[in-house]
Structures are given as C-alpha cells and as structure tokens.
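Table S2 (text version). Query chain:
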Amino acid sequence: MPEDSFTDRIQRAELLHNTINLLTPAYNPGVPGAGELDLQINAFFQKVAQTAVVNEAAEDAATAYGNWSTNREAHLTNVLAAATSVLAYLRSKKKTLAPLLTGAEKIVKRMRGSKAKKAPPPPDGEPPPPDKVRSKGQQSYMEQQGHLRTLVNLLTNKPGYAPPASPPGQPPHPASLDNLNALLSAFRTFNAQSSILEAALIHAEAVRMEAFEHKDHGLHPWFLAMKEAVQSQYGFTSSQYEQIAGIEW
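Corresponding structure-token output:
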C-alpha cells in the first residue's frame, strides 16, 4: 500500500473504536477464549495505538533513507564534477600528461555511463514506450565508488600531476588528489550508511505489514472482527450497527 494508505487505515480504525465506544447500550463482546482475538474495546484501542507506533517507525525509516539517498545523489554530482575537472586539467597539459589523460578518459567515461537510449517510435495509435534509464540503485553507487577509487589510483604518485594549491582557507582544487581522496572517503561513508538505512527500512516495513495484515492478530482482521461483534450484539438492522457499517477498511 502507499504510505498514506497505512495512516488512512489507522484513522479508520480509530473512528471505528470511537464510534463503538459511544454505542448505547454499551458494547460488550465478552471475555475472549484461549487463542481468540480480544474484541473488548480497550484491547482494540491498544492494538490501534501499537500499530500507529509501528507505522510511524516505518515512516521515519523511509524518511531517513530518502534523505540520505538524496544527499548521496548530490555527492555523486560533486564526484562527477571533480572527474570533469581532472580531465580539463590533464587536457591543459596534454603534451606531458597524454598517457594519464587517456586512462582518465576511460575511467570517467565509465562514471558518466551511456546516455539513455531513445525508444523507437511506436506504431500509429499506440503510446510511446518509456526511455531506458540506467539504474541508480545501490549497486550503481558502489560501481561509482569503485570508478573513483580507480581514478585516484591512476593519478597518485604520477610525476607532473599537480593541480595548483588553493589559497589558505579556500577549498582545494577540484582535481587535486586531496579533494579526490576526500570525495572517495565520503563516498564510502555514504554507501555504507545507505546499506544500513535500507536494511532498517526493509525491517520496519516488514514489521508494519505484519502489524496490519497478520492473519491472527493484524489490525485488518481485528478491524473486521470488531464490526462482526457489533453486528452480533446489536443485530444487522440495528441503529447501532448502522453507525459503523459504513466504516470500511
């Protein structure tokens, strides 16, 4: 379900609880037997509240992973800009650094990737197929980290590769080894933490799905059982059941 659907169903469960709690005569499903859902109003309230907490945890995990992914994508933009600066510096010294330029161009070409191919035009009357876009998943970022590491290794300890030093207090030259190594270190941190946050998100979503849909104690079957209990106590044609009949999952 979309993120807002989980919250919407919690709100419907809260509405069901609040409506049942005000029925007269008072709702009284009795004490549950062994292994049965507790359909008493306080037990249902606790289930709704617990599910809301689990849902918020999943939403927080999604936000944390999303924010981190956005920052990692911005970092990749900086990495590609630095790689372009490397090529520009090497081209400015092509007469003496031609072998380095050839190697760097190969690496940066891999970093940039191939452009998305335009899909062929569709037959008349049919919608155009989407263009193929290169994946930006975890594996893609790990590949980019590897390409940057290869570029750093290519340039390290090479005579003649010495972009000018920046004035004190200014950022280093984009093509400098100091800058490239800093970008590589940050890239490693981004990728490592991204894996941790993604794993946390997957776990939080699994816990949430169980809280909502577990066949024995999920909020969904509990919600439906509460409606059945109201119908059982007051009758299908009663005014009490009519108040909750339209509250759908």
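Notes on Table S2: The chain has a mean pLDDT of 92. The radius of gyration is 30 Å.
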